[in-house]
Amino acid sequence: MTLKVICAEGIKIQEDLLNKFILAFELVSKEEYFDSDVSINVKIVKDKEMLKLNSHFRNKESSTNVLSFTNKDISKSITGNLGDIAINYDYIIKESREQNKTFDDHMIHMLIHGIYHILGFDHEDDKVAHIMERKEVTLLNKLNITDPYN
Predict the structure, then answer these.
(1) H helix and E strand count, the chain
(2) Does residue 74 carry a pLDDT above 90?
(3) Where exactly are the structural domains of the chain?
(4) pTM for this structure?
(5) Does the structure show a pLDDT above 90 at 94?
(6) 2-142 maps to which CATH number?
(7) Cβ proximity of 13 and 111 under 8 Å
(8) What is the pLDDT of residues 99-125, one digit of tens each?
C-alpha cells in the first residue's frame, strides 16, 4: 500500500502529519480490505488551485476542502492506483479555526473522507452519506480524533 503525498509550491507539512496520513491510510486499507499493491496520490493545494479544480471538474465557481478523483481507466488494474485526492490547505486552516478543530485532525479527516469518495461514497443520498460518515467516525476514533459530525 502506498500513499504518495505532494505539496503545492509554498506548502510544507510537518513529518508528524505525514506519518498520521500514512497511519490513517493503513487503517482505511485494513478496514476496506485493500490489496497490498494499491496506491492513492494526495496533493495538498492552495485555494487558488482548488478553485480551478472545482470549476473545471464540478462546474462550481467556489472552493472546497477536498476533491477526489477515482481512477476509472485500464491503468487501475495494472498500477493499483485507486485515484487522486486534492486537499485545500488554506480551506482546512480556515475550517479548523471556525470549527474549533486542530489542523492535523481536520487534515486527517479530509484524507479519510477523500478516500471514501474514491471508493464511491458520496453526499447525494442520505443513506450512503450516513454510511460513509459512520465509517469515517469509526476510523477517526481509532486515531483518537473526535467525531467531526457532532
Answers:
(1) 6, 4
(2) no
(3) 2-142
(4) 0.94
(5) yes
(6) 3.40.390.30
(7) no
(8) 999 999 999 999 999 999 999 988 888
